[in-house]
């Protein structure tokens, strides 16, 4: 394995890849800082760019943007009291209080250190856990894979949004969009309504950009009109004293650990991990009453959790082909466009690429630390770039993203339609992430379903006769019931709500 | 009328729409010609049928679920207990007056959709320049020299970097004649 990893480093340290990782971290930090523009929309916008790149480089770019955004999100939480990402909402509680007490420096420093430790840990775990999980899943047949995808979709549906029925609806809607186009097995044209442009199906980038980027522009535009401008606290010296570090180290480690566990679960993602880790922290740590009053542990813990979770979410993505949320779903889509189907054989077939990716994540974590330490005040000032100049440009670049897919006018119109539908869904609390996930998984899910039925000669009992698939389906059903059971837990409900608002 | 008001909520209307979409979806699956179906083998409509049924059931649930009505009753029963982020008092107004106050919002959508519609024919530079002017203005910048200057600079920068830097084919449209 170390041989593989060393080979990975050889690729990751190539000048091009190093430069790409640096650019990705920079872009990631910037979008992390900018409230509104989230990682999912940005990744969707970047997809047309990565077409022409070799797969390893493409994935290095996408992942570095992803974890860079987790890193940048904390900066504005602390300095401005506006979370740049939904995963940094918890950080505002203690982080901004610390800044108001004149301790912005230590807060930013511990966020950086915690993120670095957590990021490194999750990459380390990915190194060791990834290949065995992939090897185990080689025993999966079509029935198991279908059940696994049902499980993934159900966890996402259960953990995002406020109403399970609404989440099921958007998931299903995504799967339905995926059935548009020519059926690859029989050649029948489905849901094309005689339009030849629909025969290839609807590209997920078209829907993702419409639903994430365009709606984001409009939502932000409306907020600009309402006009809330926050004051930016300046951090004097970014340094943390040794005793503060020792004081918060247990919190970092706990956040890292729980963040990783929660992050591995498809659907949970970084946002929920921060809520769960912080909640547990309150129960486990000494002097829990200090949390919430500007305690440094209140920054260290959730910041470690979200970075750990974002690394952990790559485990099911790379080994099972199961994305955990919007951002990883877009990555999966990108991989499939590059002709790489993530899944059990990934480590065997595309081992070189995966190891290069893992190696680049070690490098990227170090880069982020080096990049952020001296430049954090500069990044915070990016926030003051007025949205009225930024959003129109986001709009144009998103349009180019759609256009460059296949230079098709129909795609542009579909994007506009997706934007309108997406806006309505967002406004009425229908979560969009499950829709994108369904759209991306739809093709493979149908394939697994049909293969399983062919094996069983048309009997649906096959899914209940195989023990692994039965267990997965039961787990999926339990997840759908979870919100009803946990209705009383305010923290849990708040976490779900946040995850629907800022994707 | 009163009963109708009590049971008709937005969620229920959405449930109805979803149910109708599901039925349409199932109907369309039904229309796939027979000869694609091989007996004994799951055909092109097996999976869509499953989806359509789940979708229809979820829509039906929204339609009959008492959750909304209960929430509304609760809100009506205890109005004083919800002081927190009070939603703006959107009184029941007519459609026209809502359009009038939301003109800005509707214009934004119209501008976006119009841009997507005409960009391939009008050409990227002209369409983008117009879009940026309209949008920056709609977002509250009223100084004309800032608006036009920024729009022109952004258009040129984006065009050059995507066309030359990334080799994306962007249509010149009506400007094409000039540069030939």
Uncertain residue ranges of chain B: 78-92
Fraction of residues in β-strands of chain B: under 5%
In N-to-C order, the SSE pattern of chain B is HHHHHHHHH
> Radius of gyration of chain A from the CA trace?
22 Å
The number of domains of chain A is 1
Molecular shape of chain A:
globular
What would the principal axes of the Cα set say about the shape of chain B? flat
Task: Quickly count the helices of chain B.
Answer: 9
Total separate domains of chain B: 2
Total E-strand runs of chain A: 2
Beta-strand share of residues of chain A = under 5%
**Residue windows where pLDDT falls under 50 for at least 5 positions of chain A:** none
Alpha-beta content class of chain B: mainly alpha
What distance separates the N and C termini of chain A? 35 Å
The secondary-structure element order of chain A is: HHHHHHHHEEHHHHHHHHHHHHHH
Write the layout of secondary structure elements.
The complex is a heterodimer of chains A (503) and B (180).
Chain A: H1 2-12, H2 15-33, H3 39-50, H4 55-80, H5 89-100, H6 104-136, H7 142-159, H8 164-178, E1 181-182, E2 189-190, H9 204-226, H10 242-264, H11 269-284, H12 297-312, H13 314-320, H14 326-337, H15 346-349, H16 351-382, H17 387-406, H18 409-427, H19 433-455, H20 462-465, H21 467-485, H22 490-501
Antiparallel strand pairs in A: 1-2
Helix pairs in contact in A: 1-16, 2-4, 2-16, 3-4, 3-9, 3-14, 3-17, 4-5, 4-6, 4-12, 4-14, 4-16, 5-6, 5-12, 6-10, 6-12, 6-13, 6-16, 7-8, 7-19, 7-21, 8-19, 9-17, 9-18, 10-11, 10-12, 11-12, 11-22, 14-19, 17-18
Chain B: H1 2-7, H2 10-30, H3 46-64, H4 67-77, H5 95-101, H6 103-122, H7 124-138, H8 144-165, H9 176-179
Helix pairs in contact in B: 2-3, 6-7, 7-8
């Amino acid at each position: 394995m170390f041989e593989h990893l060393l080979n990975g480093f050889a690729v990751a340290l190539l000048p091009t890849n190093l430069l790409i990782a640096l650019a990705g971290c920079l872009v990631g930090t910037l979008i992390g800082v900018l409230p509104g523009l989230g990682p999912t929309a940005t990744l969707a916008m970047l997809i047309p760019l990565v077409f022409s790149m070799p797969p390893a480089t493409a994935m290095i770019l996408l992942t570095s943007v992803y974890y860079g955004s987790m890193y940048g999100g904390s900066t504005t939480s602390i300095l401005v009291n506006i979370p740049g990402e939904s995963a940094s909402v918890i950080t505002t509680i203690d982080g901004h209080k610390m800044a108001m007490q004149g301790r912005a420096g230590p807060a930013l420093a511990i966020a950086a250190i915690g993120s670095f430790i957590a990021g490194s840990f999750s990459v380390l775990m990915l190194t060791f856990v990834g290949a065995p999980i992939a090897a185990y899943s080689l025993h999966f047949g079509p029935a198991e894979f279908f059940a696994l995808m049902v499980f993934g979709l159900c966890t996402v549906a259960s953990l995002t949004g406020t109403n399970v029925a609404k989440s099921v609806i958007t998931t299903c809607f995504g799967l339905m969009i995926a059935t548009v186009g020519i059926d690859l097995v029989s050649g029948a044209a489905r849901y094309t309504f005689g339009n030849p442009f629909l025969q290839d199906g609807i590209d997920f980038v078209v829907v993702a950009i419409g639903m994430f980027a365009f709606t984001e522009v409009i939502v932000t535009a409306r907020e600009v009109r309402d006009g809330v401008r926050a004051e930016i606290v300046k951090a004097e010296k970014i340094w943390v004293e040794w005793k503060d570090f020792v004081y918060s180290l247990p919190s970092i480690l706990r956040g890292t650990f729980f963040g990783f566990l929660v992050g591995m679960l498809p659907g949970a993602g970084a946002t929920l991990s921060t809520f769960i880790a912080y909640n547990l922290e309150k129960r486990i740590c000494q002097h829990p009453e200090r949390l919430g009053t500007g305690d440094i542990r209140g920054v260290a813990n959730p910041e470690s959790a979200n970075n750990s979770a974002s690394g952990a979410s790559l485990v099911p993505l790379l080994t099972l082909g199961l994305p955990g949320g919007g951002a990883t779903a877009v990555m999966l889509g990108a991989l499939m466009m590059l002709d790489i189907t993530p899944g059990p054989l990934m480590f065997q077939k595309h081992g070189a690429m995966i190891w290069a990716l893992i190696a680049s994540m070690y490098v990227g974590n170090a880069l982020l630390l080096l990049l952020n330490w001296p430049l954090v005040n500069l990044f915070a000032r990016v926030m003051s770039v007025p949205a009225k100049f930024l959003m129109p440009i986001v709009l144009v670049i998103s349009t180019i993203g759609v256009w460059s897919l296949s230079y098709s006018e129909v795609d542009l119109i579909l994007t506009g339609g997706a934007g309108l539908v997406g806006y309505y869904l967002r406004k009425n609390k229908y979560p969009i992430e499950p829709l994108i996930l369904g759209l991306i998984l739809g093709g493979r899910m149908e394939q697994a379903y049909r293969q399983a039925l062919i094996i069983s000669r048309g009997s649906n009992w096959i899914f209940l006769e195989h023990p692994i698939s039965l267990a997965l389906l039961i787990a999926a059903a339990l997840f759908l019931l979870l919100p009803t059971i946990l209705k009383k837990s305010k923290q849990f409900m708040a976490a779900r709500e946040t995850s629907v608002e800022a994707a | 009328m009163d009963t109708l008001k009590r049971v008709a909520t937005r969620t229920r209307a959405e449930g109805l729409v979803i149910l109708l979409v599901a039925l349409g979806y199932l109907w369309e699956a039904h229309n796939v010609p027979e000869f694609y179906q091989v007996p004994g083998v799951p055909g092109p409509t097996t999976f869509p049928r499953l989806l359509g049924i789940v979708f229809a059931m979820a829509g039906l649930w929204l339609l009959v679920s008492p959750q909304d009505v209960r929430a509304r009753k609760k809100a009506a029963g205890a109005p004083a207990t919800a002081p927190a982020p009070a939603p703006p008092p959107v009184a029941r107004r007519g459609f026209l007056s809502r359009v009038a106050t939301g003109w800005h919002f509707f214009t934004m959508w119209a501008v976006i959709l119009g841009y997507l519609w005409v960009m391939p024919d009008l050409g990227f530079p002209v369409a983008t320049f117009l879009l940026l002017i309209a949008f920056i203005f709609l977002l509250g910048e009223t100084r004309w020299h800032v608006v036009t200057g920024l729009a022109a600079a952004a258009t040129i920068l984006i065009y050059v970097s995507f066309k030359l830097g990334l080799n994306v084919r962007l249509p010149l449209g009506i400007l094409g004649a000039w540069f030939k």
